[in-house]
Structures are given as structure tokens and as C-alpha cells.
Amino acid sequence: MAFVIFDTETTGLNPLLGDRIIEIGAVRVVNGVITDETFEALINPHRIVPTEAINIHGITNEMLKTAPDAAQVIPEFLKFIGDDTLVAHNAEFDMGFLENELKLLNLGVSLPSSLCTVKLAKIKFPDLPRYNLDALSKHLGMTIERRHRALDDVLATAELFTYVHEQAPTLF
């Protein structure tokens, strides 16, 4: 089985209010093993990134000035994921942004099915007080080098996903 663990960094919290993806990262997991197949790209949203968002992920307007736009990056990301099942921590958020980008680009494609590691973690660890990536990483003894950058969050999510997959394969 192949999965693509992915994460987005955005200009804000709501794509329906004009917020856009500014970074996307992904790694492929095959048969429960994290591979070295990764995808990482900054995306120029052609709008100013609010200071509140910059304070979270550290991606500045200057960093995005020469980045390719979504019309260049999203088709490459779609090629990377192929038909593999998508996995994200808080998948509704990331899938919502990705679906919005597909709509804005008028690509007319459907995304593969997705799994949410927050929901999986709640099944596997029902007694935890919180299920954010920091809390789950701490619970599992994992260290995240840089937080709130797409590929770093993806690698932490992939570790969480493979752990849950190994401990509870019937969830998949």
C-alpha cells in the first residue's frame, strides 16, 4: 500500500476568504516504510502574507516573491501523488486548501481519498488531552526540527502515521 503524507502552509485559515497555499510538502510511505521520495515547493500566492501567518510558519513575502505560482506547482504535486491515498494531520484543513486550488486553477481533476492522522490518533490514543502534532510527537518521543514548515511537519506526521499503522493495521 502506498500513501502520500502531505502538509500545506497557508496565508491564513480559510480558502473561501481568499487564503492560499504558500508551501506544500509531501513524502511517500510504501508498505509502512517512509521512503526518500519527497516533494517540497514554495508557492507565490500573488497576495501579501499577513504578519500573523508569517509569525507561525516563518515564510516571508520576500521568500515567495520569486517562487512559482500554483498553476506551476499544483500539477507537479498531482503527478507526485498519482492515485496514492493522501494523509494529513487535520486533513480537512489541508484537503480544503488543495481542493480550493484545484477549483481556482480549473483543473477538473479529483483528489484521491484521504486519511486524517488526528482521527487515527484519537482512536489509537483515546486518553490524550490534545491531538495536535506537537502533543502527539511528545507522546511518542519524537523531535520535530523545524515546526510549521511543510516538509518538516510531513516527516513528523509520517512517523506518527507509520507508528499507528504498525500498531493498528486494521485501521487502514
Percentage of residues in DSSP E strands: 15-25%
How do the strands of the widest beta sheet line up side by side? 3-2-1-4-5
**Spatial separation of the terminal alpha carbons:** 10 Å
Number of helices: 7
Helix content: 40-55%
- Count all strands and give the number: 5
Question: What report would you give on this structure?
Answer:
The chain is of the alpha/beta class. Helices cover 42% and strands 21% of the residues. The protein has helices spanning 51-57, 61-64, 70-81, 91-105, 117-124, 133-140, 150-167, and strands spanning 2-10, 21-30, 33-42, 85-88, 114-116. A 5-stranded mixed beta sheet has the order 3-2-1-4-5, with helices on both faces. The protein is globular and about 45 Å long. The model has no long low-confidence stretch (mean pLDDT 93).
